[in-house]
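Sample intake sheet
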Amino acid sequence: MRSGVVGLMPADLRAVTPQTAGRLRELGFTGVSCVMHDPFDYSQADLERVRSILADAGVRVAQANARYPDLIHPDASQRAAGLRALRQACVAARWLQAATVYVRPGSLNPAGSWTPHPDNTHPRTLARLIASLKTAAAAAADLGVVLALEGHVVSSLDTPERLREVLEAVGSPALRHNVDPVNMIGSLRDAYDSTAFLGRLFAVLGPFIVAAHAKDLRVEDRLVLHLQECPIGEGLLDQVTFLQLFEAVCPDGYVMIEHLPDDQIPAAKRALDAAAAQAGLTWQE
């Protein structure tokens, strides 16, 4: 497995410098996510320059991550716009030589892609998602890149089993899974016994996993139920088992620390390094 991060990068990728890359490498990262708020903003020269600067420091683009209209939107024109932008993200990923392209399933809630809605898991919604993903996977295959689809308990892909059903329905080797255990924990049972939950998660989705996001979570003393993300090592997730299971199914993939401000990333990296050591694992270069 390889060590990556979502962070420590400028909002505009054109501002990446050798110092940016050097800081990533200094902290022990060999991979980084390149986030593009609009994938059409960047030229091939822009992104090849980013790739070159990172590569000179020994850092690869672990994941290309672009913003786009949700793939389950009821409006066909919005879904089409989302697919155009996702295809452009695949083009950008090719220029960056990214290991994967991040894909979110989206939500029907206008508040955002990672918010709940009662119809997110309705059969009509899932049918739209599968149709969109088939189009996206065909484009990715043509461009020679791999899509990494993520799930979340508030999204259309709310359980490991539903995720697998959708992946199998699309049936493309260009569509794989970005595993994020914290996203998939939605109950006290799973939060308090994350080891058992991780076993189920990897048993169901292991053959599809190509990348991972590393986070942690805690249960808050509030009514009714509040599960809150927190820095790695300060929560309930069994990080040792997480890394062992990831190594078993995806030994060359990136585990990317996510959802932390830049000043908290070094401590999270140390905590994840400690978990890897406890697991008897070492990071690949």
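Comment: Strands lie at 2-5, 31-36, 60-66, 100-103, 147-149, 175-179, 209-214, 216-219, 227-230, 254-257. The first helix runs from residue 18 to 26.
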